[in-house]
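Quick entry, no commentary yet.
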Amino acid sequence: MDTPNVRGPEAPDLIAGSNAQLAELLGLMADGDRAAFSEFYRLTSRRVFGMAKRVLVDPGLSEDTTQEVFIQVWQNAAKFDPQAGSPLAWLMTITHRRAIDRVRAAQSATDREAKYGAASQLLDHDSVEEEAGTRLEAEAVTRCLGTLTETQLESVRLAYYGGLTYREVAEQLGAAIPTIKSRIRDGLLRLKTCLGVS
């Protein structure tokens, strides 16, 4: 299946379509419908670019990541499972992962250069200690996420990983915006306290 032409993010008034509309477009895309892809792109590209830019900061890298996201969506439209979540949440998860992969790749390159420099100066580096520290940090975050209430966890997940606004989180969870703001604030405070961040 040929990949449709993917441009930079669409401009002005691109507001994501309804979940039903986006799910229908994904179904058509799974059958190779290029017009459906164009419409899906038109409705969501600005949101994807915004999420990528929030993680990457650099506009050029964000545009590249946006293109990669839509190529992945085109190739994997048939894998979208509406039972697992909304089309927009699925799309934002792909975007977030792609952007984080870019950050990790850049960090990995920087780390390789640093390690090479350190090795060439014959400096000792305890990689076992570093790996253990990283593993302990990941375990701490997972443990602290487990201290959130189910409503706090869902609200934080949709806002952070889903890239949704307070209003969109409120609509998705059927709650008032002040309630969602309170859940997110309280959840983040609980995480901060649990992790011992000052």
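second:
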Amino acid sequence: MLDIKAIRAYLPQRYPFLLLDRVTAIEPGVRAVGYKNLTANEEFFNGHFPDHPIMPGVLIVEAMAQLAGVLGFVSTGRRPEDGIIHLFVGTDDLRFKRQVVPGDQLILEAEIGTCKRNLYKFNCRASVDGDLVAKAQILIAEQHL
């Protein structure tokens, strides 16, 4: 399990763009599970939409990508302090199935798909209360700084 302090060692994002609160399970080279707790105080709910707050889909994708990034770093035994950054470069087969609203706990899952050179493909899912919210293949490139 990784708490927020450990997650920050792997991800350069900070508030309000750090969208991963905890990693609850991680199997290097295989998969990771984590979550984001959503409260009414999230910045994005103020504008999306004030009378009917919904988490923007692009932020759900970003949350999945952040978990995939952590899994990538843990799997390779590297960290950003080693002069490496993971960049989100694309998604395939993205589908949204349900809205995410204040009070939800967004459960995130990432599994390593393929790796060619410095390009990783992860199979990701997001759910709330066991209901699928979104799924996608997330592509991340490892770049040396």
